[in-house]
Structures are given as C-alpha cells and as structure tokens.
Recover the amino acids of this structure.
C-alpha cells in the first residue's frame, strides 16, 4: 500500500508540486463525525444516519459522554433482512423516518446521512429524501448527504451537509442588492462579532451558512458573494458558485492577519473605503496582536508537526508560523484543495514538508525522528505519543472551539500553548 | 432497519479489538473503510491506554472499490506481520468490508505469514460486540491449545493436595466495566479463600501464556459475556471445571466461595461466615432504613444486571420493579433471575423499549448503563451506572472494583448517592413551597455537582384512556414527593380505569393509595 512517489525530504516552498502523497492506514474520522457539532449549531435539525451498528457506535462514542434528554441524531441500522432484500429498504426507511418525526415533532429539517454500508449497497437516499420531502411537505424538509468514510474525511461531512442545503436556498432576484454568505460553522459568539464588523464596514446583508436554525436559509443569486470561514468547504463553495454566487479569494480568518485578510476580501468586493476599513479593524486588530504577544513568546522558535485530520492544517500552520513564530516541520492534510488553499500555501515557510493522505505508521516514524516540540494529531494517537514523551495538541478541539476572528486569535494560540505550559507545570 | 438512538453494544469487530488490545503480542488486521479507526479512541481516550491498540486497518476508500481491495488486505497483513512481529495475527473485517467479501481470514491463511493466523468471522449485521469478543477469545484459545489437548476419554486428574489449588480468571478485557480493579480484587478474594491465580486472560496475557491455561485446576468465568464459550470448550477438552458464580455482592461472594469449596475441598467458612465488607453494616445502620422498598429498575449486561438485582433486593432492601439485559446470548440466565423476583425480564437491545419500560414503571432509581442515564435525565430519576457501555467517567483513577468485598463497598456508595438523602426527603414530604428546597430543585447534595432534574412525571399528560383529573386531585398529586409521584399517577389512573370512573377526584387519589397501600 505504499505509493510514495515523492521522496520525503523537505521541499522548498510550498506552492510547488513536491507534496508527499501517501497511501496506507489513515487514522482519521469519517464525515459522520460532523454531526457532533452540526446538531448543536442547527437546533431544529435532526440527523438520521442510514448505516450499520458501527456508524451508531461511532457517533455515540463521540457524543455520548453528554447526556441527552432529547437526542438530535440517530441511526437506522441495516440488518440482514435489508441486505438480503427481504425487506424493502425504502419502506423500512419511511417507517423509521415516521418514528423519528413522531418523537421529534419540532424539527424542521431532517438529514438522511449516507454511510459506507448504504453507499456500498447503493441505497438511493437522495431519491428517498425527495420522496419523503414530498410526503412531509410544509412540515419538514428532508435532505440527503454522504458522511461515509469511503468518500469523506471528518470535516468533509460538514461540506457535504452544507452542499445539500445549497439547492434549497431561495433564489434572489437579479436586481437584489449584493449580499454576503459566510459559509462554515462558526461559534455563535464569533458569528455575532463578524456580524458587527461587517455592519461597521457597511456590509449589512450578511447571512451565515449554516445558521442557528436549519430552516433559516439565505437567498442566493448573481449578486451574492461568498466568504469561506472554513477551508474544508470546497464542494459547498462550488455549489454556491453553481447558483451564481461569486467566491471571494481570501485567507482563512485565523489570527490577526488572517482575519484582516479575510475581512479585506469582503471590503474590496463591497468597495469599502480604505480609511473606513482601517477605522473598523484597527482597534480589534491591535487588541488581537496585543493578546497574541505572550503566546508568541511561548511558541516562537518551537517546532510543530500536523498529522492529517480536518484540512485546517495548512491555515493553522500558516497562523502558527506567521503570527506565533513557530517552525512547521511536516504539515499533513487529508486532502489538499489547491484552489481553496492557494492563498495559504504561499505563506508557509520554505522547507516545510507538506503531505497529503497518510500511511500512519510511516508518518509516526517521521514524527519520532523529527521530535517536534508539538504534534497536532487525533485522539487515537495523542495519548500514545504523550506516553512516548512527545507533547501533543489534539486536533479535534480546533473544530469545536471558538477560534476564528480577532477576539479569538489569542485563544487559538493558547490552545497550542496549553499542552506546553502543562508539561512545565506538572511535577509528577 | 432498526431505529437506534443509542446502541448498547458496538459491532462485533470492536469485540475482536477488545481482545487484541487486552492481550500482549497479538495484532489484529481489520479490513475496514477509512474512518473505522474511531474505535482506537475507545481505548486511548475512554480507557486512557498509553499505547495504540494493536490494530492495523486497511482503510479503503471509494476509489479502491473499483480496484483490487483484496490486494490491500494482503499488503496490510504482510506489513503488520513484518512491522509488529506478533505471536499471533488475527484477521477480520468490519461491517462494510463484509459486504465486499474479500475474506481476509482466508487470504491470511493462504499467505505463509511468519506467525500463526487466527481468521475471524464476525457477522456484523446479526451479531454484536460481546459476541465478537467471546468468539475471538474462543478462536484464539482453541487455535493455540487444540494441539495440546489430551486424548478423548482422558479422565481429569484429581486435585493435588501438595499445593494450593490454582485457577484461571477468564473474561477480564479492555473496555470491560471496572475490569482493571476487578482483577486485583478477585486475586485478593481468591487468596483469602486459599486459591492461587494461574493466569488472567485475555487482559494482560500473551498467546504464549495462554498455553499455560491447562496448568490450572479450574476456571473462573468472571465475565460470561466474554469467557463462557471458552470455559465450556476448556471443560470439554481439558476437563477443567468452571466456577460460574460471579462474586459481585456479598451473597454472590459467599456462593462463589462455597462453589470453590465444593470443587476443591477447601474450608471456606472464614469467607462465608465473616464480614469482610462494610456494606452489611452500612445497609443495616438506621440511616439506611429509608432505602427500604425504594423502587429500582435494573438494566445492563447479563452479568452485572443479575448481580445488581440480587444486591438491590437482598442487600439494600430495595424493591426490584424491573430487570433486563441487552445480552441476548445470556437471556436465559436473566429470565431465570427475574423469575425469582416474580418479574418478566426485558430482553432487548432497543433503547426505546427500555425507555418505554422505565416510563411505565416509574422507578425511583435506575441502575443501568450510560444509555439509561439519558432516560433518567429525561424522566428526572436518580441513576447509577452498573455496566458497560460506559463513558470516560466510569474508568476512574481511584480503586473502584465491582467484584469482591471492596466491590460491595463501592457499590453501596455509588447506588445510594443519587437518591435524595433521608432528612431532605422527609422535609420535602412535609413542606412543599420552600423557595430553595422544592420538587423542581435538584437534591441539594447533588446540586453542587451540576446535576439537574426535569420533572417529567408531573408535567406529563394523563394516559389516553384514563379519565381526566379534577383540578383538586391534580393539585393534591403535586404534593406527593416527586420520586414516587409518577407511580402514584399511574396507580390512580389504573384504579380509575378499572372502576370505569368518569373523573379522577381527590377521593379517587386516596382510594387508590389505600387500594395499593403504599
């Protein structure tokens, strides 16, 4: 399973093609995991996975530490009768959806989420979603997306979920005033901060996708501009473009510089006056830089390696390098979308080893040789690496912490500082 | 299709992983799609193990499906054998791989690998985690020991009197409920009885050590979910008797000692007649009087559910109102246990069935799994965890066994904790409208821990076929302490229905109370 076409020696510059591509065991989540944060963002949505006991087990292992009076996700577990064709899968699905809607009468959107088993047996959930949408028309919108491991890695589940919502967006009229869609799940507090900044810039028609209610969908049309808040939304971006919207090229809003670049892309599209832009962004930008200073003191000069997880790796490596003075050794990403990451790859320092895909055993061999000061990795590897004397930052936390924008720049850096401080503090 | 909000067990390959991770020098190659590595977290996070589980996944993706996925398997097998050099290689598949039928077990057997291979068949759409663990353990023991089996017809050798009897403790495994401390506690208990531990397996054992299983005089089947199949095979093949009693709870510990006494001829009276635990005294002390007749519902794996039922009734004086398990393999044992309490056991792996049963019975305490905590929260009922599945907080740092005398101490504290304490309960029954202590407030000894109660029993509507409640009766109902209110509502409605009353009045409420005399 080795197909290392490129040597693993560091490449110079990051915008060239010398990316280490590996195939082997991937130690990553599948896209179903996105449900863990999406169900909290959209409180009126329900996620029904059609899959096996493994899928059910995955989600509850991830989210089941919280105690739910009202679960907002479930699995329709396929059994032998479904596989043998003894039960009509569509009838079965209709029955299960009926049970869900009876139990949760208040939901507005039901996502039928495909899994590896449902994809392999080619159960047509897209069709089923259409059929059921017809049946529950006016009450519940029923959508389908795939969170299967064979097709999606971790955050790609959100990409597929949002992409499935894009056709549902109402069409804006051709002469509608320009509006901005910010795509990617953001913490509520961050959403509010961005809202205030955009308003300050005079951009007052701003919608967030997803918003806090799944049935609250922004209009889209030729005058719509899209800013991606997350780097893993390639498919959503292309779907939005397909509806006539224009994607604004920007870095991702991590850190003071990233946030400024991101806001500037919108400001440029709205032809916001430079003076106004400075006036609105200067104070929060300085605040962010000031708050970052002690973090930079703690991180500057230290080395960091990223193992593939969420596609946040490249922008975060950029942030840690450019704004915190860290030296990335290897930046691994499950999937490298060059179009979406072009701006970020340019900023990575020369000599960084960029890798796409994974052969986890070999990658761990490299980590043990490199011995970075901090390894950003998943929870399946974090404790074993800690036990081997390496400091780690578990990567999933970066997906469910408020890390975007000016006010969170220092919080984001602090996530990387914390394991190092802890190591210094502990006397046991 | 089965609608599953929560699942009690994972798929069978997780059971296979539990065996591989429990043991040393074993490696498992799993044919599985990208993403199934989530299961590593069960071991590295929930159990906080400090090494990666010895599992290699093929992690195939969509683009591989068009090509030669079998080739992926053979390369993963060869790489794993080369890199990890295990004593035994296990080969199995997850649910999705089962659909594409590459048969990794058969492939591995034909590969001339440098170590023995145990092929696993794990039917993911009909079997579950504990079955997978039991099957994997059995296949491995059988594979290793079959060549050493005595000729058929060989008589069991008599128990030697020149040394202390030796026992294997079979069943403790990774992700077993409190297995880590149960291993220590069972060794202590056996030492008290006068028995040496020959081997604990699968937890901590290597394949080479499994070869020492026949050196023991008998086997202790500590977790039948994992070890029963293996113990039966050892009984048949090596004539090793099995001790079936699981020593969780004082009565069970005494039975366990007696069973060993009969088997070995040891005098066990010092274990049976003396108290080595605080539970009996704590339970007899007057502070525990208010526990008498507390209505409790028990659900979990068969081993822990049966043990809990006995402790609840005989050792804490609760009233057992429901008993159930998700362990279908051991359903018969649970049915038999339930019969002793004049109950019909609930045998189901459907969380919604359990929820309905709890709503129906309206108990004051639920002893269950992590899943029952969700139901208890929804219903506002106290709850303690007695069985897997569990989450990270039930893999504690402190010593907290379930088996043995210390296990009984742990159980007393854990089960009584969620109940409202005696004085508070009395005062709640007398004074209804205190601004701080009232029905909708959390029991004050729990409030600091942030536990909350939603009082579903009072807000819930009357059953469809029950007569309507008069306002006075409804108001009076609210004066009954919340933890018995659900039961009072149900009894009153049943009483009114039986008499075909058109309305439930204040009198109906008290007539029903007298009728059911509680």
């Amino acid at each position: 399973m080795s197909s290392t076409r490129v040597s693993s020696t560091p490449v110079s510059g990051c915008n060239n093609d010398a990316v280490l591509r590996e195939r082997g065991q991937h130690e990553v989540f599948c896209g179903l995991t996105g449900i863990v944060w999406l169900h909290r963002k959209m409180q009126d949505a329900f996620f029904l996975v059609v899959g096996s006991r493994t899928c059910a087990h995955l989600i509850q292992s991830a989210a089941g530490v919280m105690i739910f009076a009202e679960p907002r996700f479930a699995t329709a577990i396929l059994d032998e009768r479904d596989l043998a064709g003894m039960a009509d899968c569509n009838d079965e699905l209709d029955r299960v959806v009926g049970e869900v809607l009876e139990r949760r009468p208040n939901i507005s959107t039901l996502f039928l989420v495909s899994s590896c088993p449902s994809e392999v047996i080619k159960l047509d959930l897209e069709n089923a979603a259409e059929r059921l949408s017809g049946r529950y028309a006016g009450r519940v919108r029923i959508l389908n997306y795939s969170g299967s491991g064979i097709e999606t890695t971790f955050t790609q589940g959100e990409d597929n979920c949002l992409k499935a919502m894009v056709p549902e967006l109402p069409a804006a009229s051709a002469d509608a005033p320009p509006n901005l869609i910010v795509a990617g799940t953001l913490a509520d507090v961050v959403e509010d901060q961005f809202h205030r900044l955009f308003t300050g810039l005079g951009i007052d028609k701003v919608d967030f996708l997803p918003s806090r209610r799944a049935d609250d969908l922004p209009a889209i049309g030729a005058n719509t501009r899209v800013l991606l808040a997350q780097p893993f939304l390639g498919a959503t971006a292309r779907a939005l473009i397909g509806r006539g919207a224009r994607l604004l090229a920007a870095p991702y809003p991590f850190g003071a510089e990233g946030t400024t670049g991101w806001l500037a892309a919108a400001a440029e599209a709205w032809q916001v006056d430079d003076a106004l832009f400075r006036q609105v962004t200067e104070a929060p930008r300085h605040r962010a830089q000031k708050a970052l200073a002690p973090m930079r003191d703690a991180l500057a000069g230290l080395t960091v390696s990223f193992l593939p997880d969420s596609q946040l790796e490249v922008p975060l490596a950029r942030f840690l390098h450019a704004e915190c003075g860290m030296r990335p050794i290897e930046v691994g990403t499950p999937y490298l979308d060059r179009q979406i990451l072009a701006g970020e790859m340019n900023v990575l320092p020369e000599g960084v080893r960029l890798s796409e895909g994974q052969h986890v055993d070999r990658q761990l061999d490299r980590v043990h040789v490199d011995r970075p000061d901090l390894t950003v990795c998943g929870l399946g590897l974090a404790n074993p690496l800690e036990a081997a004397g390496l400091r780690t930052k578990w990567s999933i936390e970066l997906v469910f912490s408020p890390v975007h924008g000016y006010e969170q720049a220092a919080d984001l850096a602090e996530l990387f500082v914390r394991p190092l401080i802890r190591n210094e503090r502990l006397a046991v | 299709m089965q609608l599953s909000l929560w699942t009690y067990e994972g798929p069978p390959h997780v059971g296979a992983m539990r065996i591989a991770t429990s043991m040393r020098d074993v490696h498992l190659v799993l044919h599985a799609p990208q993403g199934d590595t989530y299961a590593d977290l069960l071991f590295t996070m929930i159990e906080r193990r400090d090494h990666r589980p010895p599992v290699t996944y093929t992690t195939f993706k969509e683009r591989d499906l068009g090509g030669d996925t079998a080739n992926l398997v053979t390369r993963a097998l060869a790489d794993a054998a080369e890199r990890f050099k295990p004593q035994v290689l296990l080969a199995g598949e997850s649910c999705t791989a089962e659909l594409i039928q590459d048969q990794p077990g058969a492939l591995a057997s034909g590969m001339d690998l440098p170590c023995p291979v145990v092929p696993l068949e794990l039917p993911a759409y009909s079997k579950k985690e504990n079955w997978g663990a039991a099957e994997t353990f059995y296949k491995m023991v059988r594979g290793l020991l079959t060549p050493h089996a005595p000729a058929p017809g060989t008589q069991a050798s008599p128990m030697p009197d020149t040394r202390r009897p030796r026992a294997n403790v079979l069943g403790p495994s990774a992700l077993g409920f409190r297995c880590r401390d149960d291993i220590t506690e069972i060794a202590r208990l056996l030492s008290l009885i006068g028995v040496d531990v020959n081997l604990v397996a699968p937890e901590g054992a290597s394949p080479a050590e499994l070869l020492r299983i026949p050196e023991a005089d008998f086997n202790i089947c500590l977790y039948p979910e994992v070890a029963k199949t293996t113990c039966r095979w050892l009984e048949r093949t090596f004539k090793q008797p099995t001790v079936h009693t699981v020593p969780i709870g004082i009565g069970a510990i005494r039975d366990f000692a007696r069973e060993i006494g009969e088997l070995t001829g040891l005098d066990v009276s010092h274990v049976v007649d003396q108290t080595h635990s605080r539970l009996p005294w704590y339970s007899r002390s007057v502070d525990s009087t208010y526990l008498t007749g507390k209505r409790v519902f028990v659900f979990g794996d068969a081993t822990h559910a049966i043990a809990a039922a006995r402790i609840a009734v005989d050792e804490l004086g609760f009233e057992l109102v429901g008993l159930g398990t998700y362990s279908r393999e051991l359903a018969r044992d649970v049915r038999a246990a339930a019969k002793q309490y004049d109950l019909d056991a609930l045998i189901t792996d459907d969380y919604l069935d359990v929820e309905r049963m709890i709503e129906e019975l309206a108990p004051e305490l639920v002893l269950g799994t992590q899943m029952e905590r969700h139901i208890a929260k929804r219903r506002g009922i106290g709850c303690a965890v007695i069985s897997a599945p569990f989450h990270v907080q039930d893999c504690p740092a402190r010593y907290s066994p379930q088996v043995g005398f210390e296990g009984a101490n742990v159980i007393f504290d854990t089960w009584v904790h969620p109940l409202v304490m005696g004085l508070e309960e009395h005062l709640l029954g007398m004074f209804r409208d205190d601004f701080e202590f009232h029905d909708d407030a959390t029991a004050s000894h729990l409030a600091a821990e942030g536990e909350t109660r939603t009082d579903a029993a009072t807000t819930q509507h009357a059953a469809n076929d029950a007569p309507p409640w008069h306002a006075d009766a409804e108001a009076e109902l609210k004066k009954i302490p919340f933890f018995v209110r659900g039961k009072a509502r149900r009894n009153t409605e049943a009483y009114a229905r039986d008499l075909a009353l058109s309305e439930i009045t204040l009198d109906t409420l008290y007539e029903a109370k007298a009728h059911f005399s509680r």
Remarks:
- Chain A touches chain B through 65 residues (CB under 8 Å).
- The first strand of chain A starts at residue 20 and ends at 22.
- The mean pLDDT of chain A is 92.
- The CA atoms of residues 201 and 277 of chain A lie 6 Å apart.
